[in-house]
Amino acid sequence: MKKFASVLAIAGLAAVLVAGCGGDPKAGPAPEAVGKKSIKVGVTAGPHAEIMEAVKTVAAKDGLDIQIVEFSDYMTPNIALNQGDIDANSYQHQPWLDNQIKDRNYEIVSIGKTVIFPMGIYSKKVKNISELSNGATVAIPNDPSNGGRALLILEKANLIKLKPGAGIKATVADIADNPKNVNIKELDAAQIPRSLDDLDAAAINTNYAMVAGLVPTRDAIALEDADSPYANLIAVRTKDKDDPVFQKLLKAYRSPEVKQWVEEKYKGSFVPTW
Q1: pLDDT tens, 212-222?
Q2: Which three-class secondary structure string do you get for the chain?
Q3: Which tops the pLDDT comparison, 61 or 30?
């Protein structure tokens, strides 16, 4: 009986070892172990969440499972990413990220641009920004971030010239050349669309333009493009920036399928950068 029990014990141990090695070598690894990756991506509610749902569908075909985590404010997604509660986020542009890193010492970095909600210059009086007359009144938002953004668009359209190095922090005081003596009027961003009838032109954020029935790619007489620093991006922790899983995420986001989806869904209000 002792000898028989020993044989049984050895047989049982062998079975355990075989099971631990995956059993029949011809069977291969379990399906869920083949190239499957799962990551948590933080987004803000609304368009960013909607687009990520489309990205999730494309990514799944490449073996990447995206768990979408929605936030209701602009601060928490970076806090959650820096703490490791999520693996990536998609909701912000570079100036916002740079400011957050400066203020909070986050170890976060962009891995690529996604879409831009382009600020545009709109007018009910001219069809081209070059047609603005001498002394024309042009409104820009009165907050520092959007004011500088608007001035960069006016400079790119050759309406004004800013002092060297003014960049995204430019103010009206940084205008170095104003050949048409354009009158820059600073107004609350939300008020500008309602004042458009009384202005020669105005810089309007996409969210306010949409409410006013304006489509950036159709109605703007000057518009930000994909090179704008205000294009949105995907951010990850700095230590993870070279992880192939995030290249899969970026690839899925910048896919032809997602581009088509964005163009059909938002009809020119939100523009792919690829």
Answers
A1: 999 999 999 99
A2: CHHHHHHHHHHHHHHHHHHHCCCCCCCCCCHHHCCCEEEEEEEECCHHHHHHHHHHHHHHCCCEEEEEEEECCCCHHHHHHHHCCCCEEEEEEHHHHHHHHHHHCCCEEEEEECEECCCEEECCCCCCHHHCCCCCEEEEECCHHHHHHHHHHHHHCCCCEECCCCHHHCCHHHEEECCCCCEEEEECCCCHHHHHHHCCEEEECHHHHHHCCCCHHHHCCEECCCCCCCCEEEEEEHHHCCCHHHHHHHHHHCCHHHHHHHHHHHCCCCEECC
A3: 61
In tens, the pLDDT along 137-152 reads 999 999 988 999 999 9
Amino acid identity, position 243: D
- Full set of structural domains in the chain with CATH: 34-117+229-272 (3.40.190.10), 120-223 (3.40.190.10)
- pTM of the entire structure? 0.82
pLDDT of residue 62: 95
Q: Residues near 111 by Cβ (< 8 Å), separated by ≥ 6?
A: 88, 233, 234, 235, 236, 241, 246, 247, 250
> How would you classify the pairing of strands 37-44 and 201-204?
unpaired
Mean pLDDT of the 22-37 span: 43
Helical axes 256-266 vs 47-60, angle rounded to 10°? 150
Give the confidence band of 167 by pLDDT, cuts at 50, 70, 90.
Answer: very high
What is Dmax (Cα atoms) for the chain? 109
